[in-house]
Specification:
The protein is an alpha+beta fold. A seven-stranded antiparallel β-sheet has the order 2-6-7-1-5-4-3. A five-stranded mixed β-sheet has the order 10-9-8-11-12. Helix 1 crosses helix 2 and helix 6 packs parallel to helix 9. Bound molecules: zinc ion (ZN). The site of zinc ion has 8 residues, from loops.
Length: about 375
């Protein structure tokens, strides 16, 4: 079966004059979704059809939602329950009054390119999409099919998150493998010796850190606002760096007909096989974001991604195969205790990762971020 790729376009909305209607719809919609979730949770319902028959009539009668919005509220509630269950959590999902409104093909309609019509409690309202050039290009790209959307309210501004999907292109046949070692000092090092340094990111982080500490001491409203802004900036900066690195690596693999090989980190928390010195950082969101970007950009470009067993990649000599802890002299330095091969430690690891015989026996990476939550926001 072919993989499906999804992506989300976040577009700012001009809702001029419809704030009250949309806010009222949001309150009713989320109250309904919370009630549906509670019922399904209580009665152990996870099947959308069963849920529909159980809650549909009451949803319409008690919350004043139209037929289509009632269906969307049920969809949101059941989806949230499934996601909570997948994470083995024990609390029934509930939604705030300012939670998002789910729209499907029947409850919203893109009219002209910059107009969208949205279902509300009593009528349809038309809002204007404030599109940038890039968002516009994404929206009209015929390769991507437009799906549902979420209306999101954030600090007084409405955004429409439109989901698009397409079939993944066929993976090109790989003639060779480009190994990639992901780390903290060097964010990524490939088996051809190219390094994407984390120095720049580190510097920026330090800067943000001092600013944060300074602002945290000043406990005023203004300082709090600036703290929030600051946090957003740091995240965006890191995200941008991750986009650039993953783009460059995928392009490199695509033009040279190579597959990408990464360490398989599924279940690292249980196994504890990660290189010790990186254990903390490997759990950080930025590190996983880079992996995620690599995997979906590779899927978009038809570049196969192979996952290799992470054990011993950092302590095995890529020249003679000798494996010993002492080979890894420091974070940066590799020196083989048997043959004397010396190299940058990340490069040595990347070469190990690239070895076809290691990669070939392993399963391919699940390249498609499943569901909305994991799909890239653009
Ligand atoms: Zn050696």
């Amino acid at each position: 079966m072919k993989k499906t790729l999804t992506r989300t376009i976040c577009i700012k909305l001009d809702v001029a004059g419809h704030e009250t209607t949309l806010a009222a719809t949001g309150r009713a919609f989320n109250a309904a979704a919370s009630w549906i979730a509670a019922v399904c949770w209580e009665e152990g319902i996870t099947n959308p059809n069963t849920a529909h028959h159980r809650v549909y009539g009451e949803t319409r009668a008690s919350f004043g939602l139209g037929a289509q919005l009632a269906v969307c509220a049920r969809a949101k509630a059941v989806e949230a329950i499934m996601s909570v269950k997948a994470k083995h959590r024990e609390t029934c999902p509930q939604f705030g009054m300012r939670g998002s409104i789910r729209y499907d093909a029947r409850t919203y309609r893109l009219m002209s390119l910059d107009r969208v019509s949205l279902n509300t409690l009593d009528r349809r309202v038309v809002c204007r999409l404030l599109l940038g050039a890039r968002q516009h290009a994404m929206l009209v790209d015929p390769a991507w099919k437009i799906g549902g959307a979420d209306l999101v309210w954030r600090r007084g501004v409405y955004y429409l998150h439109i989901t698009q999907s397409r079939e993944a292109p066929d993976e090109h046949p790989a003639e060779d493998v480009l190994g990639i070692d992901l780390g903290i000092v060097n964010l990524a090092t490939d088996s051809e010796g190219e390094t994407f340094s984390g120095a720049q990111v580190k510097q920026a982080r330090a800067r943000y850190h001092t600013r944060r500490q300074r602002l945290q001491k000043v406990n005023t409203k203004n300082a709090k606002r600036r703290l929030r802004k600051n946090a957003g900036r740091e995240r965006r900066f890191q995200k941008d760096v991750n986009h650039c690195i993953s783009k460059a690596l995928v392009k490199k693999a695509a033009v040279s007909c190579k597959a990408l090989a990464l360490e398989d980190l599924s279940g690292i928390r249980e196994r504890g096989t990660v290189r010790h010195e990186h254990r903390y950082e490997r759990h950080s969101w930025a590190f996983f974001q880079l992996r995620q970007f690599l995997s979906y950009k590779a899927a978009w470009a038809g570049v196969p991604v192979l996952l290799v067993d992470p054990r011993n990649t950092s302590r095995t000599c890529s020249a003679c195969g000798h494996c010993e802890k002492a080979n890894r002299r420091s974070q940066a330095e590799f020196l083989c205790q048997r043959c004397g091969f010396a190299a940058n430690a990340d490069f040595n690891a990347a070469v190990n990762i690239s070895r076809k015989e290691r990669a070939a026996v392993n399963r391919p990476m699940a390249a498609t971020p499943a569901g909305l939550a994991a799909s890239p926001r653009l």
